[in-house]
Amino acid sequence: MTTQNITLAIPKEILRKAKRIALERNTSLSGLLTETLVEITQQEDAYNRARKKHLALLEEGFDLGTHGEADWDREELHDRKY
After folding, report:
1. Is 71 within a domain?
2. How many structural domains are present in the chain?
3. Which of 8, 14, 46, 68 lies 20 to 30 Å from 29, alpha-carbon distance?
């Protein structure tokens, strides 16, 4: 994978904390940011795949075995025998 340098403007307090986290994880700030961005983009890709899959299912419809006809009525569903 090719890389590209970027310039970021980050609040000093956040930068200080991020550097400490990178040090604790035995990586660089660049490595920490790359790891975080990879996770975010992978999650977004997975969400979009799942969304596309489920929208396709909704368009196709669900086969619940009823063929669009219920063989019960509301009274039967709520009939409580004590």
Report:
1. no
2. 1
3. 46
